[in-house]
Amino acid sequence: MKKISLIILTLLILLGCSPKVNVDYGNSEIYTRNDIDEAIKAINALNPGAYDVTLDNFVYMGDDRATDESIIEYANNLGHANNLIGDHESFTQVLVLTCTFKTGKKGNEGQPPNKTYDDWQIYLARVSPDSKWIFLTWGLG
Q1: Separation between Cα atoms, residue 16 and residue 102, nearest integer Å
Q2: Which strands form 134-140's sheet, in the order they lie side by side?
Q3: Distance from C-alpha of 138 to C-alpha of 94, rounded to nearest angstrom
Q4: What are the extents of the domains in the chain?
Q5: Which of 6, 53, 89, 116 is the most buried (most CB within 10 A)?
Q6: pLDDT tens digits, residue range 81-124?
Q7: SS3 state at 52
Q8: Would you give the distance in Å from CA 130 to the centre of its chain?
């Protein structure tokens, strides 16, 4: 009985620690909700909370951005410069999101505490539809 109680307590704690975020999926003809959710998981894997920040209100920036040749070229330049993809690989898919970025009580390098930033842009890419999203860069738009 103790073991079951501990398992239930652990699950409740873990569920309470995972913040809910709002996502505007838009009307994409390229990406499914699952594609966008997987991109957000890749962002969360970077552990923004370790930097005392919270990301919320993700918005998919649309298929026009995803198919913009200059953005795809930018993604490939970043991928090669940072050794995220091999010399003979190319990203074929790019996903751009914006979100709200809020610093915590301590703030972090360059941002004061308890400040909210809107239009925080995040770029991700992948080499094929069945590969994982790779975080490229983020910053204010």
Answers
A1: 19
A2: 23-24, 53-60, 93-103, 116-126, 134-140
A3: 13
A4: 21-140
A5: 53
A6: 999 999 999 999 999 999 998 888 887 777 788 888 888 899 99
A7: coil
A8: 17
Please name the amino acid found at residue 2: K
Task: Record the tokens describing residue 8, joined without a space.
Answer: 């239930």
| 73, two tokens | 């070229």
Are 102 and 116 spatial neighbours (Cβ–Cβ below 8 Å)?
Answer: yes
3-class SS string, 7-50: HHHHHHHHHHHCCCCCEECCCCCCCCHHHHHHHHHHHHCCCHHH
Task: Select, from the ranges 14-23, 96-105, 129-138, the one with the highest average predicted confidence (pLDDT).
Answer: 129-138
According to DSSP, the residues that pair with 111 across neighbouring strands are 108
Distances (CA, A) of 121 to 39, 60, 76: 13, 10, 17
How many Å apart are CA 91 and CA 112, to the nearest integer?
35
Name, in order, each residue with C-beta under 8 angstroms of 92's C-beta and a sequence gap of 6 or more: 72, 126, 127, 128, 129
Q: What is residue 64's DSSP assignment?
A: H
Q: What proportion of the chain, given as a percentage, has pLDDT over 90?
A: 58
pTM score of the predicted model: 0.81
Q: Tell me the C-alpha distance between 66 and 96, whole Å.
A: 7
